[in-house]
Amino acid sequence: MAEQTLEKADSAGAQEPRALGLKVHHLRPAPGAHKKKQRVGRGEGSKGKTAGRGTKGSKARKQVPARFEGGQMPLHMRVPKLKGFRNRFRTEYQVVNVATIEELFPEGGTVGVDELVAAGAVRSKSLVKVLGDGEIGVAVQVTAHAFSGSAKQKIEAAGGSVTQV
C-alpha cells in the first residue's frame, strides 16, 4: 500500500513531505489469503450429493462413533477386566525360609542380608523377610528386615537370635 503524504510549507516557503501513518482501517489481508468456507451437502452444484463422504458404507451415513470397529469385538470388551485391588504402596520382600538358612549355613554363625546375597538366596538391594517354613537345628544369629512369628520362635528355640534391621 502506498504511503500517503501531505505537502507542508514551512516559513521559508519550501515544501516538505509529511507521512500520515498507518491506521487500523487501512489493514487488509493479502489477496487470496481468505477463502470462503466450503458448504457441503447443499445441492448438486457444489460438493452436493455425497458431500465428500464417498459412496455408501456406515461412514457415509449419519454419525458413526469413533470407537466403532465395524462389528469387530470392541476394545473395551476385548480387554480383560480389572480383578481385585493392588496396593501401589506395598513393601515387597525377598523371602527366605528357616530351612533354606539351615541348608546354606549348616555350621550356624552370623547370617545377614549380605551373606544371603552372597549365597544366592536373595537379590541384592532388596528387603529380606525370614519365614518359618521348615525346621532349623543350628544356632544362627539372623539379621534381616522382617521376620514372621514362627520364624522367630524356631530360630530362638534352636539357640539362635533374631535382629531386625
TrEMBL record:
Residues 1-75 are annotated as: Disordered. GO terms for molecular function: rRNA binding; structural constituent of ribosome. GO terms for cellular component: cytosolic large ribosomal subunit. InterPro entries: Ribosomal_uL15, Ribosomal_uL15/eL18, Ribosomal_uL15/eL18_sf, Ribosomal_uL15_bac-type, Ribosomal_uL15_CS. Residues 23-40 have a biased composition (Basic residues). It comes from the Bacteria. Residues 1-10 have a biased composition (Basic and acidic residues). GO terms for biological process: translation. Keywords: Ribonucleoprotein, Ribosomal protein, RNA-binding, rRNA-binding. Residues 95-163 form the Large ribosomal subunit protein uL15/eL18 domain. Part of the 50S ribosomal subunit. Belongs to the universal ribosomal protein uL15 family. Binds to the 23S rRNA. HAMAP family: Ribosomal_uL15. This is Large ribosomal subunit protein uL15. It comes from Parafrankia irregularis.
